[in-house]
Protein backbone atom coordinates (compact mmCIF):
# COMPACT_ATOMS: atom_id res chain seq x y z
CA UNK A 1 0.00 0.00 0.00
CA UNK A 2 1.37 3.41 -0.86
CA UNK A 3 1.79 6.00 1.89
CA UNK A 4 -0.74 8.09 0.05
CA UNK A 5 -3.38 5.44 0.31
CA UNK A 6 -2.61 4.66 3.92
CA UNK A 7 -2.55 8.27 5.01
CA UNK A 8 -6.29 8.50 5.31
CA UNK A 9 -6.66 11.98 3.98
CA UNK A 10 -3.94 12.84 1.54
CA UNK A 11 -4.98 13.11 -2.09
CA UNK A 12 -2.59 13.76 -4.91
CA UNK A 13 -4.17 16.67 -6.75
CA UNK A 14 -2.02 16.87 -9.80
CA UNK A 15 0.05 14.63 -11.95
CA UNK A 16 3.10 15.95 -10.19
CA UNK A 17 1.55 15.03 -6.85
CA UNK A 18 1.18 17.55 -4.08
CA UNK A 19 2.55 15.88 -1.06
CA UNK A 20 4.33 12.84 0.18
CA UNK A 21 6.08 10.81 -2.40
CA UNK A 22 6.08 7.14 -1.65
CA UNK A 23 9.07 5.98 0.26
CA UNK A 24 10.60 4.32 -2.76
CA UNK A 25 14.22 4.83 -1.92
CA UNK A 26 14.64 7.73 -4.32
CA UNK A 27 14.46 11.43 -3.80
CA UNK A 28 12.75 14.08 -5.86
CA UNK A 29 14.97 15.53 -8.55
CA UNK A 30 14.56 19.08 -7.45
CA UNK A 31 15.20 18.64 -3.74
CA UNK A 32 18.16 20.59 -2.43
CA UNK A 33 20.73 18.08 -1.35
CA UNK A 34 22.78 20.20 0.95
CA UNK A 35 22.86 18.82 4.45
CA UNK A 36 21.39 21.46 6.66
CA UNK A 37 18.05 22.73 7.79
CA UNK A 38 15.96 24.07 4.98
CA UNK A 39 14.77 27.60 4.65
CA UNK A 40 11.09 27.23 5.16
CA UNK A 41 8.49 29.43 3.54
CA UNK A 42 7.73 32.58 5.48
CA UNK A 43 4.96 32.19 8.06
CA UNK A 44 1.65 33.78 7.27
CA UNK A 45 0.74 36.65 9.58
CA UNK A 46 -1.06 35.51 12.69
CA UNK A 47 0.04 31.95 12.24
CA UNK A 48 2.86 31.75 14.72
CA UNK A 49 2.88 29.53 17.76
CA UNK A 50 -0.60 28.95 19.04
CA UNK A 51 -0.96 30.12 22.62
CA UNK A 52 -4.38 28.57 23.22
CA UNK A 53 -4.75 24.98 24.27
CA UNK A 54 -4.52 22.59 21.33
CA UNK A 55 -6.97 19.74 21.28
CA UNK A 56 -5.30 16.38 20.93
CA UNK A 57 -1.84 17.66 21.87
CA UNK A 58 -0.50 17.34 25.40
CA UNK A 59 1.08 20.34 27.09
CA UNK A 60 4.74 19.23 26.85
CA UNK A 61 4.43 18.92 23.08
CA UNK A 62 2.61 22.26 22.92
CA UNK A 63 5.51 23.86 24.80
CA UNK A 64 8.03 22.21 22.50
CA UNK A 65 6.18 23.30 19.36
CA UNK A 66 5.71 26.86 20.59
CA UNK A 67 9.45 27.06 21.31
CA UNK A 68 10.34 25.67 17.92
CA UNK A 69 8.12 28.21 16.19
CA UNK A 70 9.79 31.07 18.03
CA UNK A 71 13.26 29.76 17.23
CA UNK A 72 12.60 29.26 13.54
CA UNK A 73 10.35 32.30 12.99
CA UNK A 74 11.77 34.93 15.34
CA UNK A 75 15.37 33.67 15.64
CA UNK A 76 14.73 33.25 19.39
CA UNK A 77 17.13 31.17 21.50
CA UNK A 78 15.65 27.79 22.35
CA UNK A 79 17.21 27.57 25.79
CA UNK A 80 15.82 30.98 26.78
CA UNK A 81 12.38 30.46 25.22
CA UNK A 82 11.57 26.99 26.51
CA UNK A 83 11.53 27.92 30.24
CA UNK A 84 8.87 30.59 29.51
CA UNK A 85 6.77 28.11 27.56
CA UNK A 86 7.05 25.56 30.39
CA UNK A 87 6.06 28.14 32.99
CA UNK A 88 3.14 29.37 30.87
CA UNK A 89 1.78 25.81 30.94
CA UNK A 90 2.70 25.07 34.54
CA UNK A 91 4.93 22.18 33.53
CA UNK A 92 7.49 20.64 35.85
CA UNK A 93 9.06 17.28 36.68
CA UNK A 94 8.74 14.57 34.05
CA UNK A 95 6.56 16.69 31.76
CA UNK A 96 9.16 19.45 31.69
CA UNK A 97 11.92 16.89 31.14
CA UNK A 98 10.05 15.38 28.19
CA UNK A 99 9.38 18.81 26.66
CA UNK A 100 13.05 19.69 27.08
CA UNK A 101 14.23 16.46 25.51
CA UNK A 102 12.09 16.78 22.40
CA UNK A 103 12.68 20.52 22.00
CA UNK A 104 16.46 20.41 22.33
CA UNK A 105 16.71 17.16 20.41
CA UNK A 106 14.70 18.56 17.52
CA UNK A 107 16.74 21.77 17.44
CA UNK A 108 20.03 19.88 17.48
CA UNK A 109 18.91 17.60 14.68
CA UNK A 110 17.28 20.20 12.41
CA UNK A 111 19.48 19.40 9.40
CA UNK A 112 19.02 15.65 9.78
CA UNK A 113 15.24 15.93 10.24
CA UNK A 114 14.97 18.10 7.16
CA UNK A 115 16.77 15.44 5.16
CA UNK A 116 14.08 12.97 6.25
CA UNK A 117 11.32 15.40 5.22
CA UNK A 118 13.02 15.86 1.84
CA UNK A 119 13.18 12.12 1.35
CA UNK A 120 9.47 11.72 2.08
CA UNK A 121 8.06 14.70 0.23
CA UNK A 122 8.10 15.84 -3.35
CA UNK A 123 7.63 19.41 -2.23
CA UNK A 124 10.70 21.54 -1.82
CA UNK A 125 11.25 22.35 1.82
CA UNK A 126 10.98 26.01 0.88
CA UNK A 127 7.42 25.36 -0.24
CA UNK A 128 6.26 23.80 3.01
CA UNK A 129 4.58 26.22 5.41
CA UNK A 130 6.91 26.75 8.39
CA UNK A 131 4.11 25.87 10.84
CA UNK A 132 3.85 22.50 9.13
CA UNK A 133 7.58 21.97 8.77
CA UNK A 134 8.17 22.59 12.48
CA UNK A 135 5.41 20.13 13.43
CA UNK A 136 6.99 17.54 11.12
CA UNK A 137 10.45 18.11 12.56
CA UNK A 138 9.13 17.62 16.08
CA UNK A 139 7.17 14.52 15.10
CA UNK A 140 10.01 12.91 13.14
CA UNK A 141 12.44 13.54 15.98
CA UNK A 142 10.15 11.63 18.32
CA UNK A 143 9.81 8.72 15.94
CA UNK A 144 13.49 8.39 15.10
CA UNK A 145 15.28 9.48 18.26
CA UNK A 146 13.01 8.75 21.25
CA UNK A 147 10.95 5.88 22.62
CA UNK A 148 7.68 7.68 22.00
CA UNK A 149 5.04 5.39 20.51
CA UNK A 150 4.94 6.17 16.76
CA UNK A 151 1.16 6.56 16.69
CA UNK A 152 1.36 9.22 19.43
CA UNK A 153 3.97 11.13 17.43
CA UNK A 154 1.89 10.89 14.25
CA UNK A 155 -1.41 11.92 15.87
CA UNK A 156 0.02 14.88 17.75
CA UNK A 157 1.89 16.08 14.66
CA UNK A 158 -1.28 16.02 12.58
CA UNK A 159 -3.17 17.83 15.34
CA UNK A 160 -0.47 20.49 15.56
CA UNK A 161 -0.70 21.05 11.82
CA UNK A 162 -4.48 21.35 12.05
CA UNK A 163 -4.27 23.80 14.94
CA UNK A 164 -1.67 25.93 13.18
CA UNK A 165 -4.29 27.02 10.64
CA UNK A 166 -3.09 24.64 7.93
CA UNK A 167 -6.12 22.32 8.10
CA UNK A 168 -5.71 21.39 4.47
CA UNK A 169 -2.24 20.07 5.12
CA UNK A 170 -3.21 17.55 7.78
CA UNK A 171 -3.28 14.84 5.14
CA UNK A 172 0.14 15.86 3.87
CA UNK A 173 1.58 15.72 7.40
CA UNK A 174 -0.10 12.40 8.05
CA UNK A 175 1.35 10.89 4.88
CA UNK A 176 4.86 12.03 5.71
CA UNK A 177 4.68 10.84 9.29
CA UNK A 178 3.38 7.44 8.27
CA UNK A 179 6.13 7.12 5.69
CA UNK A 180 8.68 7.86 8.40
CA UNK A 181 7.23 5.33 10.83
CA UNK A 182 7.28 2.52 8.29
CA UNK A 183 11.08 2.41 8.17
CA UNK A 184 13.29 1.75 11.20
CA UNK A 185 15.59 4.51 12.37
CA UNK A 186 18.72 2.55 11.46
CA UNK A 187 17.56 2.13 7.89
CA UNK A 188 16.63 5.80 7.60
CA UNK A 189 20.00 6.93 8.82
CA UNK A 190 21.87 4.48 6.61
CA UNK A 191 19.84 5.57 3.62
CA UNK A 192 20.41 9.27 4.22
CA UNK A 193 24.03 9.26 5.40
CA UNK A 194 25.98 11.10 2.73
CA UNK A 195 29.06 9.68 1.00
CA UNK A 196 32.50 10.65 2.32
CA UNK A 197 33.87 10.12 5.79
CA UNK A 198 33.66 13.73 6.92
CA UNK A 199 30.13 14.27 5.63
CA UNK A 200 29.04 11.01 7.26
CA UNK A 201 30.47 12.00 10.64
CA UNK A 202 28.82 15.41 10.36
CA UNK A 203 25.47 13.75 9.59
CA UNK A 204 25.75 11.17 12.38
CA UNK A 205 26.52 13.86 14.94
CA UNK A 206 23.94 16.28 13.48
CA UNK A 207 26.27 19.10 12.42
CA UNK A 208 26.69 21.02 9.19
CA UNK A 209 29.69 19.63 7.31
CA UNK A 210 31.63 22.88 7.44
CA UNK A 211 31.75 22.66 11.24
CA UNK A 212 33.02 19.08 11.05
CA UNK A 213 35.69 20.30 8.60
CA UNK A 214 36.60 23.13 10.96
CA UNK A 215 37.00 20.87 14.01
CA UNK A 216 38.88 18.21 12.06
CA UNK A 217 41.51 20.74 10.97
CA UNK A 218 42.44 21.08 14.64
CA UNK A 219 41.70 17.72 16.18
CA UNK A 220 42.12 15.34 13.23
CA UNK A 221 39.54 12.86 12.03
CA UNK A 222 40.22 10.16 14.64
CA UNK A 223 38.71 12.13 17.52
CA UNK A 224 36.25 14.13 15.45
CA UNK A 225 33.10 12.13 16.11
CA UNK A 226 33.60 12.27 19.88
CA UNK A 227 34.33 16.00 19.71
CA UNK A 228 31.18 16.74 17.72
CA UNK A 229 29.03 14.41 19.82
CA UNK A 230 30.03 16.42 22.91
CA UNK A 231 28.08 19.38 21.49
CA UNK A 232 24.89 17.42 22.09
CA UNK A 233 25.62 16.62 25.72
CA UNK A 234 24.26 18.74 28.52
CA UNK A 235 27.17 20.55 30.17
CA UNK A 236 27.57 20.66 33.93
CA UNK A 237 26.92 24.07 35.46
CA UNK A 238 30.25 25.74 36.23
CA UNK A 239 30.45 28.33 38.99
CA UNK A 240 33.39 30.63 39.69
CA UNK A 241 34.10 31.61 43.27
CA UNK A 242 34.96 35.29 42.96
CA UNK A 243 38.59 35.64 44.13
CA UNK A 244 38.80 37.31 47.52
CA UNK A 245 35.08 36.77 48.22
CA UNK A 246 34.71 33.04 48.79
CA UNK A 247 36.87 29.96 48.17
CA UNK A 248 35.91 27.14 45.83
CA UNK A 249 35.71 24.79 48.84
CA UNK A 250 33.30 27.11 50.66
CA UNK A 251 31.26 27.55 47.51
CA UNK A 252 31.06 23.79 46.97
CA UNK A 253 29.81 23.35 50.52
CA UNK A 254 27.27 26.15 50.20
CA UNK A 255 25.86 24.86 46.91
CA UNK A 256 26.18 21.10 47.22
CA UNK A 257 28.58 21.11 44.26
CA UNK A 258 32.14 19.79 43.94
CA UNK A 259 35.37 21.62 43.31
CA UNK A 260 36.56 21.77 39.72
CA UNK A 261 39.38 19.75 38.18
CA UNK A 262 41.51 22.59 36.82
CA UNK A 263 40.35 26.01 38.00
CA UNK A 264 41.18 26.65 41.66
CA UNK A 265 38.10 28.90 41.72
CA UNK A 266 35.72 26.50 39.99
CA UNK A 267 32.79 24.45 41.28
CA UNK A 268 30.69 21.96 39.29
CA UNK A 269 26.96 21.53 39.81
CA UNK A 270 25.08 18.64 38.23
CA UNK A 271 22.06 20.76 37.41
CA UNK A 272 19.42 23.04 38.85
CA UNK A 273 18.96 26.75 38.44
CA UNK A 274 22.16 28.42 39.66
CA UNK A 275 20.49 31.84 39.74
CA UNK A 276 18.55 30.66 42.79
CA UNK A 277 21.68 29.87 44.81
CA UNK A 278 22.46 32.31 47.59
CA UNK A 279 26.19 32.81 46.73
CA UNK A 280 25.20 33.59 43.12
CA UNK A 281 22.36 35.92 44.16
CA UNK A 282 24.70 37.83 46.44
CA UNK A 283 27.44 38.12 43.78
CA UNK A 284 30.05 36.02 45.64
CA UNK A 285 30.00 33.50 42.84
CA UNK A 286 29.30 33.74 39.11
CA UNK A 287 28.13 31.26 36.52
CA UNK A 288 31.21 30.95 34.31
CA UNK A 289 32.67 28.16 32.20
CA UNK A 290 35.84 26.75 33.74
CA UNK A 291 37.75 27.55 30.53
CA UNK A 292 36.87 31.23 30.89
CA UNK A 293 38.04 31.19 34.51
CA UNK A 294 41.36 29.71 33.43
CA UNK A 295 41.88 32.34 30.74
CA UNK A 296 41.08 35.20 33.10
CA UNK A 297 43.51 33.75 35.64
CA UNK A 298 46.18 33.22 32.95
CA UNK A 299 46.12 36.95 32.19
CA UNK A 300 47.07 37.68 35.80
CA UNK A 301 49.52 34.78 36.24
CA UNK A 302 51.49 35.18 33.01
CA UNK A 303 55.00 36.43 33.86
CA UNK A 304 55.80 40.03 32.88
CA UNK A 305 59.30 41.44 32.57
CA UNK A 306 60.03 44.06 35.18
CA UNK A 307 57.59 45.26 37.80
CA UNK A 308 53.84 44.89 37.29
CA UNK A 309 52.55 48.40 37.90
CA UNK A 310 48.97 47.11 38.04
CA UNK A 311 47.66 48.68 34.80
CA UNK A 312 45.50 45.96 33.29
CA UNK A 313 43.15 46.09 30.31
CA UNK A 314 40.25 43.97 29.00
CA UNK A 315 39.81 45.13 25.40
CA UNK A 316 36.58 43.21 24.58
CA UNK A 317 34.85 43.10 27.91
CA UNK A 318 31.10 42.67 27.39
CA UNK A 319 29.14 41.23 29.13
CA UNK A 320 31.83 41.24 31.82
CA UNK A 321 32.32 37.65 32.96
CA UNK A 322 36.11 37.73 32.69
CA UNK A 323 36.29 41.43 33.62
CA UNK A 324 34.62 40.69 36.99
CA UNK A 325 36.97 37.79 37.64
CA UNK A 326 40.06 39.83 36.68
CA UNK A 327 38.69 42.82 38.60
CA UNK A 328 38.44 40.66 41.74
CA UNK A 329 42.07 39.56 41.29
CA UNK A 330 43.04 43.19 40.62
CA UNK A 331 41.49 44.18 43.95
CA UNK A 332 43.68 41.59 45.73
CA UNK A 333 46.80 42.80 43.89
CA UNK A 334 46.04 46.53 44.27
CA UNK A 335 45.82 46.72 40.50
CA UNK A 336 43.20 48.37 38.27
CA UNK A 337 41.36 47.10 35.20
CA UNK A 338 40.18 49.20 32.26
CA UNK A 339 37.38 47.42 30.43
CA UNK A 340 36.47 48.39 26.85
CA UNK A 341 33.19 47.50 25.16
CA UNK A 342 31.58 49.27 22.18
CA UNK A 343 27.99 47.99 22.52
CA UNK A 344 26.05 50.22 24.94
CA UNK A 345 23.91 47.51 26.53
CA UNK A 346 26.91 45.22 26.93
CA UNK A 347 28.99 48.02 28.47
CA UNK A 348 26.17 48.42 31.03
CA UNK A 349 26.36 44.69 31.77
CA UNK A 350 30.11 45.05 32.40
CA UNK A 351 29.42 47.89 34.86
CA UNK A 352 26.89 45.75 36.71
CA UNK A 353 29.13 42.68 36.76
CA UNK A 354 32.07 44.72 38.07
CA UNK A 355 30.24 46.90 40.60
CA UNK A 356 32.44 47.49 43.66
CA UNK A 357 35.59 46.27 41.91
CA UNK A 358 38.53 48.42 40.71
CA UNK A 359 37.27 48.43 37.13
CA UNK A 360 36.61 51.39 34.82
CA UNK A 361 34.34 50.71 31.86
CA UNK A 362 34.94 52.59 28.58
CA UNK A 363 32.37 52.50 25.83
CA UNK A 364 34.68 52.43 22.82
CA UNK A 365 35.91 50.40 19.88
CA UNK A 366 38.93 48.42 21.00
CA UNK A 367 40.73 49.30 17.77
CA UNK A 368 40.61 52.99 18.67
CA UNK A 369 39.99 53.08 22.40
CA UNK A 370 41.86 56.33 23.01
CA UNK A 371 43.49 54.77 26.09
CA UNK A 372 47.07 55.61 26.89
CA UNK A 373 49.52 52.85 26.05
CA UNK A 374 51.72 51.20 28.70
CA UNK A 375 49.48 48.45 30.13
CA UNK A 376 51.17 45.56 31.94
CA UNK A 377 48.53 43.04 30.92
CA UNK A 378 45.97 43.13 28.11
CA UNK A 379 43.24 40.59 27.38
CA UNK A 380 41.73 40.37 23.88
CA UNK A 381 38.76 38.04 24.36
CA UNK A 382 37.81 38.60 20.77
CA UNK A 383 34.36 38.54 19.15
CA UNK A 384 34.28 35.19 17.36
CA UNK A 385 32.09 32.59 15.68
CA UNK A 386 31.36 30.87 19.01
CA UNK A 387 31.91 27.43 17.50
CA UNK A 388 33.41 26.38 20.82
CA UNK A 389 30.15 26.85 22.73
CA UNK A 390 27.67 25.00 20.51
CA UNK A 391 26.60 22.79 23.42
CA UNK A 392 25.06 25.82 25.13
CA UNK A 393 22.46 26.60 22.45
CA UNK A 394 20.78 23.65 20.75
CA UNK A 395 20.04 25.42 17.45
CA UNK A 396 23.35 27.32 17.26
CA UNK A 397 25.15 24.90 14.96
CA UNK A 398 22.55 25.47 12.22
CA UNK A 399 22.56 29.24 12.58
CA UNK A 400 26.28 29.91 12.27
CA UNK A 401 27.55 30.90 8.85
CA UNK A 402 31.00 29.99 7.65
CA UNK A 403 30.94 33.12 5.49
CA UNK A 404 31.23 35.23 8.69
CA UNK A 405 34.62 33.83 9.62
CA UNK A 406 36.91 35.85 7.32
CA UNK A 407 35.37 39.11 8.57
CA UNK A 408 35.74 38.01 12.17
CA UNK A 409 39.36 37.01 11.58
CA UNK A 410 40.16 40.50 10.22
CA UNK A 411 38.52 42.14 13.24
CA UNK A 412 40.34 39.77 15.58
CA UNK A 413 43.68 40.65 14.01
CA UNK A 414 42.98 44.38 14.26
CA UNK A 415 42.05 44.03 17.94
CA UNK A 416 45.18 42.00 18.63
CA UNK A 417 47.25 44.65 16.84
CA UNK A 418 45.68 47.36 19.01
CA UNK A 419 46.43 45.30 22.13
CA UNK A 420 50.07 44.89 21.11
CA UNK A 421 50.29 48.67 20.71
CA UNK A 422 48.69 49.28 24.11
CA UNK A 423 50.84 46.84 26.10
CA UNK A 424 54.19 48.05 27.41
CA UNK A 425 57.44 46.37 26.32
CA UNK A 426 57.80 43.29 28.53
CA UNK A 427 54.07 43.19 29.31
CA UNK A 428 51.74 40.40 28.13
CA UNK A 429 48.79 40.12 25.79
CA UNK A 430 46.43 37.17 26.13
CA UNK A 431 44.46 36.54 22.94
CA UNK A 432 41.43 34.26 23.37
CA UNK A 433 38.39 33.00 21.48
CA UNK A 434 35.49 30.71 22.21
CA UNK A 435 36.14 29.00 18.91
CA UNK A 436 38.60 26.32 17.89
CA UNK A 437 38.49 27.36 14.21
CA UNK A 438 42.12 27.86 13.10
CA UNK A 439 41.21 30.90 11.05
CA UNK A 440 40.25 32.61 14.32
CA UNK A 441 42.96 31.10 16.49
CA UNK A 442 46.38 30.03 15.22
CA UNK A 443 46.16 31.97 11.98
CA UNK A 444 45.46 35.25 13.80
CA UNK A 445 48.32 34.62 16.25
CA UNK A 446 50.73 33.56 13.51
CA UNK A 447 49.88 36.63 11.47
CA UNK A 448 50.66 38.82 14.49
CA UNK A 449 54.01 37.06 14.91
CA UNK A 450 54.77 37.41 11.19
CA UNK A 451 53.53 40.92 10.48
CA UNK A 452 53.88 42.66 13.84
CA UNK A 453 57.01 40.89 15.07
CA UNK A 454 55.10 39.80 18.20
CA UNK A 455 56.58 36.86 20.10
CA UNK A 456 54.53 33.97 21.39
CA UNK A 457 55.10 32.41 24.82
CA UNK A 458 54.31 28.87 25.90
CA UNK A 459 50.90 29.04 27.57
CA UNK A 460 50.50 25.42 28.70
CA UNK A 461 52.03 25.97 32.17
CA UNK A 462 49.36 28.58 32.93
CA UNK A 463 46.61 25.94 33.01
CA UNK A 464 48.60 23.06 34.56
CA UNK A 465 47.75 20.26 35.20
CA UNK A 466 45.35 20.35 32.23
CA UNK A 467 46.49 17.70 29.71
CA UNK A 468 46.19 17.37 25.90
CA UNK A 469 46.28 21.04 24.99
CA UNK A 470 47.60 20.66 21.45
CA UNK A 471 51.08 20.77 19.93
CA UNK A 472 51.35 24.54 19.68
CA UNK A 473 52.43 26.98 22.37
CA UNK A 474 48.82 28.09 22.68
CA UNK A 475 46.10 26.25 24.62
CA UNK A 476 43.13 24.62 22.91
CA UNK A 477 40.51 23.23 25.32
CA UNK A 478 37.70 20.86 24.29
CA UNK A 479 34.43 19.78 25.90
CA UNK A 480 35.16 16.08 25.36
CA UNK A 481 38.69 16.34 26.73
CA UNK A 482 38.38 18.90 29.49
CA UNK A 483 34.68 19.47 30.13
CA UNK A 484 35.11 23.17 29.21
CA UNK A 485 33.87 25.01 26.16
CA UNK A 486 36.30 24.75 23.23
CA UNK A 487 38.22 27.85 24.33
CA UNK A 488 41.54 28.90 22.83
CA UNK A 489 44.19 31.25 24.17
CA UNK A 490 47.69 32.35 23.32
CA UNK A 491 50.16 34.54 25.23
CA UNK A 492 52.03 37.20 23.23
CA UNK A 493 54.53 39.97 23.78
CA UNK A 494 55.08 42.97 21.54
CA UNK A 495 58.00 42.88 19.15
C1 LIG B 1 33.61 37.07 23.29
S1 LIG B 1 32.83 38.49 23.81
C2 LIG B 1 33.73 38.89 25.25
C3 LIG B 1 33.25 38.13 26.46
C4 LIG B 1 33.75 38.74 27.76
N1 LIG B 1 35.20 38.86 27.78
C5 LIG B 1 33.29 37.95 28.96
O1 LIG B 1 34.05 37.11 29.46
O2 LIG B 1 32.16 38.17 29.41
C6 LIG B 1 33.40 39.68 22.69
C7 LIG B 1 32.95 41.11 22.97
O3 LIG B 1 33.65 41.96 22.07
C8 LIG B 1 32.80 43.02 21.75
N2 LIG B 1 33.31 43.69 20.53
C9 LIG B 1 32.86 43.58 19.27
N3 LIG B 1 33.56 44.40 18.47
C10 LIG B 1 34.47 45.00 19.25
C11 LIG B 1 35.46 45.99 19.01
N4 LIG B 1 35.66 46.49 17.79
N5 LIG B 1 36.20 46.42 20.05
C12 LIG B 1 36.01 45.90 21.29
N6 LIG B 1 35.08 44.98 21.57
C13 LIG B 1 34.32 44.54 20.57
C14 LIG B 1 31.45 42.37 21.60
O4 LIG B 1 30.42 43.33 21.72
C15 LIG B 1 31.47 41.36 22.75
O5 LIG B 1 30.90 41.93 23.89
From TrEMBL:
Signal peptide: none annotated. Residues 34-44 have a biased composition (Basic residues). Residues 213-495 form the SAM-dependent MTase RsmB/NOP-type domain. The active site is at residue 434. Residues 1-11 have a biased composition (Low complexity). S-adenosyl-L-methionine binds at residues 316-322, 341, 365, 381. Residues 1-61 are annotated as: Disordered. InterPro entries: MeTrfase_RsmB-F_NOP2_cat (IPR049560), MeTrfase_RsmB-F_NOP2_dom (IPR001678), NusB-like_sf (IPR035926), NusB_RsmB_TIM44 (IPR006027), RCMT (IPR023267), RsmB/NOL1/NOP2-like_CS (IPR018314), SAM-dependent_MTases_sf (IPR029063). PROSITE patterns: NOL1_NOP2_SUN, SAM_MT_RSMB_NOP. Belongs to the class I-like SAM-binding methyltransferase superfamily. RsmB/NOP family. PANTHER family: NOP2 YEAST -RELATED NOL1/NOP2/FMU SUN DOMAIN-CONTAINING (PTHR22807), RIBOSOMAL RNA SMALL SUBUNIT METHYLTRANSFERASE B-RELATED (PTHR22807:SF53). This is MFS transporter. It comes from Corynebacterium atypicum. The lineage of its organism: Bacteria, Bacillati, Actinomycetota, Actinomycetes, Mycobacteriales.
